Automatic annotation (TrEMBL):
Subcellular location: Membrane
Protein name from the UniProt record: NLPA lipoprotein
Key words of the record: Lipoprotein, Membrane, Palmitate, Signal, Transmembrane, Transmembrane helix
Domain of life the protein comes from: Bacteria
TM annotation in the entry: 12-30
A Pfam family per the record: Lipoprotein_9
Topological category with respect to the lipid bilayer: Lipid-anchor
UniProt similarity note: Belongs to the NlpA lipoprotein family.
Principal cellular location given in the protein's record: membrane
Keyword Transmembrane among record annotations: yes
Length: 278
């Protein structure tokens, strides 16, 4: 009889322990899911990591948790927003976004503008555009939007002529005059900076030039004018619900932060960036 009682007690103890484990796991999952839902998640490209992390650190003091997810390419951040894996992304300007929506039919829109930067034409071999030889090798980005931006900049610099300088999707086929018979080499946008040692001329982004330690962004042979349509955007799904206005508060902090201005001066160069919301 004592043995039976002992066995019953063991079974009861095992059952209670199992129940507590199950309840503990359920509570953990609930807390993890709650924490994940309460965390603002933003996808970025590497050049903006320090910039947005400075804002994320400030938001922590306000009780807002921010997780930054880095993407190495320019396609995945929009896929992640569309799929609901992240709340927003910060890597693209309005022309790029418009073209991405046209190509993918994603339900995306600009939540708010951030900062933008100049782009320029750079060379380590020549001190002026006039020195460029016939058949000079010119490196430009291979995505439709930034390729067009590069060709438009080359046209403004007087190196080529294109059918319509206002066409945001100008292609190589739209070149109607190329007196120096420039030879165009297309690479991934971030890789243009790395091509400066071999090419005669590159289309360069200030932040990638600085990251690659390839050139001082201020040493451009030709710079583009400020154009607010090229400001980097905070992008979300069109049906995004900004719970407790976490993203809106993050954007406001970004736009008013002195830390952000300091980091932009360091990462892009003084005078090389502009505020897209003004």
């Amino acid at each position: 009889m004592t043995l039976l009682k002992s066995d019953s007690y063991k079974f009861w103890l095992i059952g209670l322990t199992t129940l507590l484990v199950i309840l503990g796991l359920a509570a953990y999952r609930f807390n993890s899911n709650t924490l994940q839902k309460d965390t603002l998640t933003i996808g970025i490209s590497p050049p903006y990591a320090d910039l947005l992390q400075s804002v994320a650190d400030d938001m922590k003091a306000q009780g807002i948790q921010v997780k930054l997810v880095e993407f190495s390419d320019w396609h995945a951040p929009n896929v992640a927003v569309q799929n609901g894996d992240i709340d927003a992304n910060f890597f693209q300007q309005s022309v790029y976004l418009k073209n991405a929506i046209r190509e993918t039919r994603f339900n995306l829109h600009a939540f708010a503008p951030g900062t933008g930067s100049h782009v320029g034409l750079y060379s380590k071999k020549y001190q002026s555009l006039e020195q460029l030889p016939v058949h000079a090798r010119v490196v430009i980005p291979n995505d439709p939007v930034n390729s067009a931006r590069a060709l438009i900049l080359l046209a403004r610099a007087g190196l080529i002529e294109v059918k319509d300088i206002q066409n945001e999707l100008t292609t190589l086929q739209d070149i109607i005059r190329n007196p120096k018979q420039l030879q165009f080499i297309e690479v991934e946008g971030p890789q243009t900076a790395h091509a400066i040692d071999e090419a005669d001329l590159i289309f360069g982004f200030p932040h990638y030039l600085k990251m690659a330690k390839a050139a001082n962004p201020k040493d451009a042979l030709f710079l583009d004018p400020i154009d607010k349509k090229y400001a980097i955007l905070f992008v979300t799904r069109t049906d995004y619900q900004d719970k407790d206005q976490k993203l809106a508060r993050f954007v406001q902090a970004f736009q008013t932060s002195e830390k952000v201005k300091t980091i932009l001066d360091q990462d892009f160069g003084q005078g090389m960036w502009f505020q897209g919301w003004k």
